[in-house]
């Protein structure tokens, strides 16, 4: 059983040995992992730690200001706007891994500049076990997995790397956050990926798609707060066609979308298709149907909740329950909640339909990219 007090005492000498009294920069995304790592270091080293948050333009609406306010009694947080730099480099990119790699390089180039500005020697970040396990397994590149992939940060970007949580899983990080006295809004906060809404704008990144997913995120989070371990919206192009072979096999109409999504099959990455089905909300039957559909080159399956006549985008609601985020099961939301969310989502300009993702991990991953 994880003991946060013992963990802090065991890691204290390791931290002192690495930092040697020099300044360190702590990258804070607002999520529980990075914020807990920064708070731990601030507890141990005080003002030798400089917590910073990069506003990449892929944050939720009002995110930077909200996180800064939540942490005002914990540690000072400097927010640095790099939105133009990030969007100009990523606009028009389609492939999930390419987007993650570009984001990673831009992120650490920006951090390197901050480290130099403060004459610091190291970067603290909130990498946890699930991050590097998935990256090493080739499932998807987590932007904050570096040394585990053989990347020498000292040579490449000019700083040492400190990852105090690298052997912990999400439930243990939450225990540590509570022990450190972080606000409940942080310790119990649902995860938010480092690349943020970039990887929830599935497929080609455009300004319009990014703003649609930002609006959709606020709606989904408002309705599903406290109902799942993680819940969010993704946006894909509303371009699909009926798969005659699978539809004939199952006796149900199965549509395949033009955008693809990451999954995990046989413990390896699978970059497969997204399917949509129009069925009544009977979860036992849906689970059986999904198991058959995902035997094909399909990683995510959504049931269609509401459709309109016009719009370029489909919004997919995702809600899962999990302990360690290595496996996850979708939440069996009731029809009234799904319809209520969908009715608000189709009010967003450009949204043509709403689906609910009914795929567990595996064969899907929690995120789509």
TrEMBL record:
The keyword S-adenosyl-L-methionine does not apply. It catalyses: XMP + L-glutamine + ATP + H2O = GMP + L-glutamate + AMP + diphosphate + 2 H(+). SUPFAM superfamilies: Adenine nucleotide alpha hydrolases-like, GMP synthetase C-terminal dimerisation domain. It holds the Pfam family GMP_synt_C. ATP binds at residues 29-35. Its EC number is 6.3.5.2. Pathway: Purine metabolism; GMP biosynthesis; GMP from XMP (L-Gln route): step 1/1. InterPro entries: GMP_synth_C, GMPS_ATP_PPase_dom, NAD/GMP_synthase, Rossmann-like_a/b/a_fold. The keyword 4Fe-4S does not apply. Residues 2-189 form the GMPS ATP-PPase domain. It comes from the Archaea. GO terms for cellular component: cytosol. Keywords: ATP-binding, GMP biosynthesis, Ligase, Nucleotide-binding, Purine biosynthesis. One of its GO terms (molecular function) is GMP synthase activity. Catalyzes the synthesis of GMP from XMP. This is GMP synthase (glutamine-hydrolyzing).
